[in-house]
Write a structure and sequence with these properties.
The chain has helices at 3-12, 36-50, 54-64, 72-79, 93-96, 99-102, 108-120, 126-143, 148-158, 167-171, 184-193, 197-206, 211-226, 230-237, 242-252. The model has no long low-confidence stretch (mean pLDDT 95). The chain has a domain at 3-18 and 32-40 and 89-241: ADP-ribosylglycohydrolase fold. By secondary structure, it is an all-alpha fold. The two termini are 25 Å apart. The protein is globular.
Length: 262
């Protein structure tokens, strides 16, 4: 639970800005580190586990790990201090950190509502919210037994996000994008075409662009669909700071209530 996104972030970290179109790379490498995807996923988990507001958690964890690779607008938001307004972002930041929401509720409606709440602290543009809802909703759907067809219908019909491109098409799309509409669908393409967790991460990274975040989102989906290979999970778990491990352990033991808004 929650390690899928963290594993994806960790494996993809060395390929951001140093992209590859290959899938036969080593998953574990000395240059792999956790980035803002992991920091803010843990922050989401802490907010939910402690019934605290998302904004305070995101700001506190970002200040604790200031060099983790946050986007410029998010850094400015952190710097403004408590009470800072959301900044209309349609980036993928809300989608990369949302996976805890998918494991905390018993209905899709609750998951979609809470995903939107977690997003709107910073990413209050409709596409930012849509990205978070797509990852959280689909992760919830997979963990409750949905098929790829079910997930595609949820995302395309209920959430109005197009998933028509396959991995090859995304791989052929040049450039670095951090917007939700141009990265969230890539994660889905990787999971739809994969046969297991590891292949989903490899395919996600091979598309280029924002590699760690695309892999983190794909990892969230893939964990719910297949689970995370034990050896891979253990290796990366041991690389996390003790405080992060404590939050993740607390989250996994919780009985949830919706956290308050920032």
């Amino acid at each position: 639970m929650l390690m899928g996104a963290i594993v994806g972030d960790f494996v993809g970290s060395r390929f951001e800005r140093h992209n590859t179109s290959r899938t036969d790379f080593d998953l574990l490498h000395p240059r792999c580190v956790f980035t803002d995807d992991t920091v803010l996923t843990v922050a989401t988990a802490e907010a939910m586990a402690t019934d605290s507001d998302y904004g305070s958690a995101y700001r506190r964890w970002a200040l604790a790990y200031p060099g983790a690779g946050y986007g410029g607008w998010f850094r400015k938001w952190v710097g403004k201090g408590p009470g800072a307004a959301a900044y209309g972002s349609f980036g993928n930041g809300a989608a990369m950190r949302v996976s805890p929401v998918a494991w905390a509720y018993s209905t899709l409606e609750e998951v979609l509502e809470e995903a939107a709440r977690s997003a709107k602290v910073t990413h209050d543009h409709p596409h930012g919210v849509q990205g978070a809802q797509a990852i959280a909703g689909a992760t919830f759907a997979y963990r409750t037994g949905a098929t790829d067809a079910d997930v595609r219908a949820l995302v395309e019909q209920q959430l109005n996000m197009s998933l028509h491109k396959d991995v090859a098409a995304w791989r052929a799309t040049p450039g670095f994008y951090a917007t939700a509409p141009k990265t969230v669908p890539v994660a889905f393409a990787a999971v739809f075409e994969a046969s297991d967790f590891e292949q989903a991460i490899r395919l996600a990274i091979s598309t280029g662009g924002d590699s760690d975040t695309i892999a983190a989102m794909a990892g969230s989906l893939a964990e719910a669909k297949w689970g995370v290979p034990e050896a891979l999970e253990i290796h990366i778990w041991e690389r996390l700071p003790q405080k992060m491990r404590e939050v993740l352990e607390t989250f996994s033991a919780c009985s949830f209530r919706p956290p308050t808004e920032a």
